[in-house]
Amino acid sequence: MVRDRLRRDDFDGPWKDVLERLFREFLEFCAEDVARAVDWSQPVVFLQQELAALVPEGVGGKGIVDVLAQVQLKGGAAARVLCHVEAQVQRTQDLERRLFRDHTRLYESKQMPIFTLALLLDRSPEWRPDRFDNRIFGTGCDFRFRAVKLSDWLGREAELLASPNPFARVVLTWFDLQRAKSDTERLELKLRAIRGLLSRGLGAETVRGLLRFIGWIVRLPEKLEIRFIQELRAMTELKDDVYMLPWERDGWDRGMKEGMKEGMKEGAARKCRESILRVLAARFGPVPDGIRQAVDTIADPERLDRLIEAAAVARDLEAFARGLARKE
After folding, report:
1. Pick from 205, 233, 261: which residue ends a domain?
2. Which one-letter DSSP state was computed for residue 136?
3. CA angle, corner 322, sides to 317 and 324, nearest 5?
4. What tens digit of pLDDT does each residue of 35-81 get?
5. Domain for residue 239, yes or no?
6. What are the strands, taking DSSP E only, across the chain?
């Protein structure tokens, strides 16, 4: 049952989030030569909207994560490069063609060099695409890209544990998630991963990004998720408050306690609605009036309980709104 849910889980969101938050660390881990050439004193500009506009038929898809960043190379204002990273969770037949399509459209639009990297998260050792070749009769194109197979690090966990690069913790968590056979094991790996990163003396923003990835990608049933939040608080109370996740501090602390633990006492429905909106605001910023109005009309205590959990795990406001509209 756990394996079935593992296959159904949506890993796209957490992978995209961590690749953007730890972009430098990712490049230093997967493309060290490229990372050395980048001038990290200059800002990294993410261009997701531009990529989406250039591929109107849809960027990526289920199990596909696209990240487009503009970086400055060492040596002058003209040395700008686009880095297009696509993380592929499962083996697919059209990766090469899709990367070639994105590369050509990006170049036509931006007229600057493009570094393309495919991060392969699958477990198929023989699948190692690195080119799209449509040449025939001396014409056509041989497009090459760099591919990094994360499974090549299997069996090298000791190196990952010793690595000073925070992205190694992302890789370890991903491997452990594949091995977990039960919800209890998933809880233990989640706590073990967080204990490990808190002991590394990393910067606050790096810790926050890793906490977010681990908390997001390792899904747990409701009761175990509450237990995880309690243990996370116990681990981080001795740290500065900056290490606390916003949704954990402002959302679960109020939402779960007010909405679930208080039960359906007098005024509990109102508190649940307030908690739902707090969770959404803590995770995504201002909550649209449409969602606020829809939540305010709900009085059923069981549905409000479910919506508190949905607000804490929803991928984005649009996903929460779709669940809200289904009236489950």
Report:
1. 233
2. B
3. 90
4. 999 999 999 999 887 887 877 655 545 556 789 999 999 986 568 89
5. no
6. 45-46, 64-72, 80-88, 114-120, 131-133, 142-144, 146-149
Are the C-beta atoms of 309 and 247 separated by less than 8 Å? no
Give yes or no: residues 183 and 296 share one domain.
Answer: no
Within 10 angstroms of residue 231's Cβ, the number of other Cβ atoms is 15
- Record the pTM: 0.69
Per the CB < 8 A criterion, the answer to whether 221 and 186 are in contact is no
Q: Quick one: which of 64, 54, 118, 110 has its CA closest to 90?
A: 64
Q: Which residues of the chain carry a pLDDT beneath 50? A: 1-8, 60, 238-266
Enclosing domain of residue 187:
155-233
Per-residue pLDDT, 236: 66
Tokens encoding 76: 């002058």
Would you state the pLDDT for residue 76? 65
In contact, 169 and 209? CB cutoff 8 Å: no
Nearest residue to 122 (alpha-carbon basis) of 87, 81, 156: 87
What 3-state class would DSSP assign to 114?
strand
Taking the C-alpha atoms of residue 188 and residue 194, their distance in angstroms, rounded to an integer, is: 10
Residue 43 half-sphere exposure toward CB, CA atoms < 13 A: 3
